[in-house]
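Protein modeling request. Please complete all fields; requests missing the sequence field cannot be processed.
Requester role: graduate student
Desired output: 3D structure, token encoding
Chains: 1
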Amino acid sequence: MPREYDEKRDFIRINVDCEMSYKLPDDAETKSGKVTNLSGRGMMFITEEALEFESLVEVRIIPEKNITPPLHANVRIVRVAKQRHGDGYETGAVIQEILDD
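Delivered output (101 residues):
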């Protein structure tokens, strides 16, 4: 089915503004971030620290409204860039595995 927009990705990105938590491998500390967009394959989020390229990170997203289910997944970091406006890092990730709670 042809698309009526210029997006060439397999999944449409949805802009969101949602709090998230994440844990680095072998680290007991849970840190927080903010999700800026989400798709069926990946996500973009803001962190205070630069995460390591290609690392696996466990993420949890709990939406404010109950109509959207929470997401608990392992993601692989594929992009890290200093924010143009702000102190954090824009982090792009590909969902590797959906986890059970």
